Amino acid sequence: MKLQLDCLPCFLRQILEATRKVTNSIEIQEKIIEDAIEIIKNYKKYKTPPELAREIHGLVKLYTNNPDPYKDIKKQSIKTAKNLYNFLKGFLNQQKDKLYWALKISAIGNVLDYGVYSQVELEKNIEKELKKDFALCDLKDFKKLLEKAKKILIIGDNAGETVFDKILLEELKVNEKFYAVKETPIINDATLEDAYDSGLHECSRIISTGCSLPGIDFKECSQEFLEIFNKADIIISKGQGNYESLSEIKKDNIFFLLKIKCPVIAQHIGIDTNNYVFKKQG
């Protein structure tokens, strides 16, 4: 999905909030915002929102000498999600269509996105979120592919959401299951450390995409990821950043699983914001 003008003010808000989380220095905050504005002036050189996000959020790392500004938030998100794990498993076991609700639980985890929301109180809102159905759900197509699938790849998004994805992986009856995360920290996206902390190694093989942006850039993907991406029978792409990166890829075994949080993506998909979608590519 191409970068839109509406993305630009959102990036400024994100970077200001990220800066305030890691430093109280007004001087450093000003430098970061000033440099961010200069980057945004040249927005046309970036094809997708994740490409611009990497450059802007890199300023926080640069000026604060902090390679992982969201580290504490990620740890708290994983802790919060783990506290909900038993409740969610109990809920799932009571459902008739367990696959549908495993997907829905995974989608609810996408709420843990501090690149979009400054505060997330998921524990208080979990029952309300569980009552919401998918606004778009290509479950029939998914089940058809799943019947013959031997290899499935989930491209992860945020730390904490990883625990919700574990519940989905445990429900998928496939021989080979892979879970891909970012190579290096970017916003609160999950890295290898976050994936292992979430227990994903217990139900899948964890791999790195090789990417340092909050999405996918095939020019920097690891060879391992590319091989699995090309050979997987089913690919589940989690979250907005991965959707922005992969929505133009012509591959009919990709399914996008996310909560729509921004109007640009809402318009692109054709579903209002604050709705959950499970969308087949094409």
Could you give the topology of this structure?
Blueprint: H1 7-22, H2 26-41, H3 49-64, H4 71-93, H5 98-109, H6 122-130, E1 136-137, H7 139-146, E2 151-155, H8 161-171, E3 176-181, H9 192-197, E4 205-208, H10 223-231, E5 234-238, H11 239-246, E6 254-259, H12 263-269, E7 276-280
Parallel strand pairs: 1-7, 2-3, 2-5, 3-4, 5-6
Antiparallel strand pairs: 6-7
Helix pairs in contact: 1-2, 1-3, 2-3, 4-5, 4-8, 5-8
Offer a quick outline of the entry.
With 282 residues, the chain is α/β, with parallel strands linked by helices. The chain is built from twelve helices and seven strands. The two termini are 14 Å apart.
Sheet with most strands: 7 strands, mixed
User: Strand order within the widest sheet?
Assistant: 1-7-6-5-2-3-4
Could you say which overall geometry the principal axes of the C-alpha atoms support?
globular
CATH superfamily of the largest domain: Uncharacterised protein PF01937, DUF89, domain 3
Total number of distinct structural domains? 2
Please identify the structural class as seen in this structure.
alpha/beta
Note the total helix count. 12
Give the radius of gyration: 18 Å
Regarding CATH, which class of the largest domain? Alpha Beta
Q: If you consult CATH, what is the topology of the largest domain?
A: Rossmann fold
The helix/strand series, from N terminus to C terminus, equals: HHHHHHEHEHEHEHEHEHE
Q: Mean of the pLDDT scores?
A: 94
Kindly state the percentage of residues in helix: 40-55%
Distance between the ends: 14 Å
